[in-house]
Design a protein that fits this description.
142 residues; alpha/beta; Immunoglobulin-like; four-stranded mixed β-sheet; 8 strands
């Protein structure tokens, strides 16, 4: 193989790698559906994906249970903006209520939960049965 052939091969591999990376990143960054809702997956690894999400005020986030295990979406009452509306799957109006009725907030496989974020700030949330496993997430509204 000549030097020119070697360089062309390297350039082709570099271009191919760039294309693959761009394709993968494009898939990761397109979290919004056609109706403007942003999706967060709940998975078998006891994690929210993405774990941290930044949205604009008025954005709706949809959590989807892509796992065979039941999960919840439960806001930490003291870790959301003071003037924000509390949120939790199961329709609870307080963290205590959600913790006291875990089964009432469980999302089975394929179930979804949506919340619209109106107030700017940081919103931390967790899965009640998997909190000790580190299943926590954050939505930042700016």
């Amino acid at each position: 193989m000549t030097f020119t052939q070697h360089m062309n091969r390297r350039q082709l591999l570099r271009l191919g790698g760039t294309t693959v990376i761009a394709t993968v990143l494009a898939g990761c960054s397109s979290q919004k559906s056609s109706n403007g809702t942003t999706r967060i997956s709940m998975n078998d690894s006891f994690a929210y994906d993405p774990k941290r999400l930044t949205v604009s005020p008025g954005a709706t986030v949809k959590w989807v249970n892509d796992s065979d295990v039941g999960h919840t979406v439960t806001a930490y009452e003291d870790k959301i903006p003071a003037d924000a509306r509390y949120f939790a799957s199961g329709g609870f109006t307080s963290e205590r209520g959600a913790r006291n009725d875990v089964s009432g907030g469980l999302l089975a496989a394929g179930d979804t939960y949506e919340h619209t974020f109106e107030v700017t700030g940081s919103y931390e949330y967790f899965c009640v049965p998997h909190e000790s496993s580190g299943m926590r997430g954050t939505v930042v509204v700016e």
